[in-house]
Amino acid sequence: MIPGISRCRVLSSLVYFAICSIRFCRLCGHGYLFFLFSKPFDVSNYRRFQLMRFSIEEINNSSSLLPGVTLGYNIFDHCSDTQNIPGIFSILSGKDPIDPWATRHGNVTKVTAVVGAYTSSMTRTVAPLFMPSHIPLISYGASSSIFSQKLNYPSFLRTVHPNKDVVDVIVHMLQHFQWQWVAFLHIDNDYGNDGRNVFMKMIQDKDICLAYTKKLDENTNYTTILKQIQIQNIQVIIVFATEQVAENLIESAIEMNVTNKTWIAVDSWSLNKKIPKLSGIRNIGTVIGVAEPDVTIPGFNKFIRALEIENQPGEFCNQFCNCSDLNRSEIVRAENSFNFPVYAAVHAIAHALHNTLQCGDKKCHKNSTSPHMVLSELKRSNFSLLNHTIEFDRNGDPRFGTFNIIFWNSSGEAEVVGVHKFQPSSHFSVNESKIQWHNSTVPSSVCSSECQPGFRKSLVGIHKCCFKCVICPSSTYINSSEDQYTCLSCDETEWSPEASTACNKRVVEFVPFEDAFAVVIMVGTVCLVGLCLLTSVLFALNYNTPVVRSAGGPMCFLILGCLCLSSISVFFYFSIPTVASCLLRFFPFLLFFSVCLACFVVRSFQIVCIFKIAAKYPSLQCWWMKYHGQWLIITLAFVVQATMLIFGYSFSPPAPFSDREWEQSQIILSCGIDFKANTASVILLLVLCCLCFTFSYMGKDLPKNYNEAKSITFCLLLIAMTWVIFVTQFILYQGKYIHTFNALAVVSSLYSFLLWYFLPKCYIIVFQPQRNTTQYFQGLIQSYTKTVSQ
């Protein structure tokens, strides 16, 4: 195909190489590929063209690969998508033109295999023409993922890695340097659009965000793009484009004085020789990239130096080129990316022919073959070439090769600083010390800085890389390796302070019997019981004396007995709570202390009644004495309290309870009590206290020896103070020793009655017997009567 000058709008390196025949073929002049375009001549593409010629000559000169067989070829330039079809038809038809509407008679094509095209868009244009006949099409530059779909491209193979491999290296690079906030600029064609789609899929489950993406073409306004990147504070820019587009972008960045950015170049332009030499290139930041390894092909430079380059424009091998300004050194120094894929593609076809023609050391045993036989052997390729094992996977993609990580140093050279290997497993490594960063350290590109340990991420906007850090509250933790956005709750047996990354085991706390405070309180309780027994004995021995009779007579023994029974509760405030211990912690005290209070209510009422009410209401005293009112009241209080306690405990009995609220690091074992179910019992206690206080206060001015009212009043005040202090302590502190305080309050309440009501009477009986006589008490009564009458 000879493209006209007016039709050649863009510079292309697409080279079709068709094997025309096996043994006897027409060689196309010198095989040179010439260009005459409106844009400058591309030396790197010309180098690939000469490498393809070199590969054919090397194979034809080999005595072992295809002995006795000479490969013929036809090479032409893909000038544009609209002008390549006639050339393809020419390849498929031989000398005769193809009539698409004519009836096909037999196999009209002599083509065995095709090498090309260079770009994905060009390949996608011509590939469908070869697929129906299963003519092998091996591309050395088309990396779009679409060609891995064997249903649409059954005879397509390639010696260049697909976009997914290039993107995989870029993603590894981003992860290695912890770059999360990136821009992806790509050329608006099959190659660029596929690269963007693959990149977006690959970063879905990674901490990388595509902050900005834009298609690039000849009408792109680079100023707008670069301004937007500056506004979004993006420091890393991936440029997935061809050499010309990348050059336009970099030139615009230099003109706009875009500085301190990190540019990631893909293999299509990372080894470009012109861009690193641009004036001001050092100001834009650091350029690193992905590149095909520089594989030295033995004999190729010698082949180039032996070339005879025409000094005049002319047509050679169906191409037109003015090569008068081209010299051999320039070709040798030209950018050499994709050279090994070209070399490997030609040799893959030669090895496939070697197998289909059943070639030995000296000759081939078959004289002909067909494209589908060559395709079958190509898919099974497995041979060594320059220390590479050439193989293809089920999709026709290469299983060989690596990628270099390159850095554009201050000299404008692409310096290798790392490597990414695919076989036998993916491995990425880079020597950071070789990279001269624009700010002397690895740059950062994030939307939000990473949260400190113990903080969760709360998304801001649509990007997962943009977030605010929220501290995890107490009793929660965050496992950033599994979920960075959720604070997980600790188990009930665990705890954690704020900003925790793990939970700690709670310490189970309770007051054991061996605790010092518990021992003191239990000893005090035993002493209480002992004193009550001694008091009972003393009162029994002096039962008929005025002091005992004025203290209540037989009622004293009931009070002392109830004090002893109430003290049972104290022993169940310690050790590990059980259902039984929780029941006995409250029931005895509430029941028998109510009886005590009822006794003192009755006793206070009797004292007031004798001295104050009897004279005014004699009938009331008669009724009281006749029906034993004191015992009725005490029995009624006992029955009512017992009924309410049994009823409340039946519906909501006290039970062991683990308190995890008071202290995070502890589990405090206690007894849970339903205050609603026990409200009536507590109200009865309060009513008895109020009545007792009222009656005792009314008798504060009675005769001294009959003035139990003062003692009762003082006892009630002590009890009230004790429980006010306990309730205040309970509100302020609910640790394990609150149960110790509760037991202490119970013991204090019991001691109040014993010490301030019974002890003074014991003192009189033992040490002041003269005050324990009938005459003494009668004298006090007469004195009080005279005082009242006056």
TrEMBL record:
Subcellular location per the Swiss-Prot or TrEMBL entry: Cell membrane
PROSITE patterns the record matches: G_PROTEIN_RECEP_F3_2, G_PROTEIN_RECEP_F3_4
Pfam families xref list: 7tm_3, ANF_receptor, NCD3G
Keywords, ordered alphabetically: Cell membrane, G-protein coupled receptor, Glycoprotein, Membrane, Receptor, Signal, Transducer, Transmembrane, Transmembrane helix
GO molecular function: G protein-coupled receptor activity
GO terms under cellular component: plasma membrane
Record keyword Transmembrane helix present: yes
Domain (G-protein coupled receptors family 3 profile) ranges: 517-775
Classification via SUPFAM superfamilies: Periplasmic binding protein-like I, TNF receptor-like
GO biological process, one term: sensory perception of taste
Stored InterPro entries: ANF_lig-bd_rcpt, GPCR_3, GPCR_3_9-Cys_dom, GPCR_3_9-Cys_sf, GPCR_3_C, GPCR_3_Ca_sens_rcpt-rel, GPCR_3_CS, Peripla_BP_I
Bilayer topology term: Multi-pass membrane protein
TM segment ranges: 516-543, 555-574, 586-611, 631-651, 679-699, 711-732, 738-759
Family classification: Belongs to the G-protein coupled receptor 3 family. TAS1R subfamily.
Protein name per Swiss-Prot or TrEMBL: G-protein coupled receptors family 3 profile domain-containing protein
Native source species: Neogobius melanostomus
Lineage per the UniProt record: Eukaryota, Metazoa, Chordata, Craniata, Vertebrata
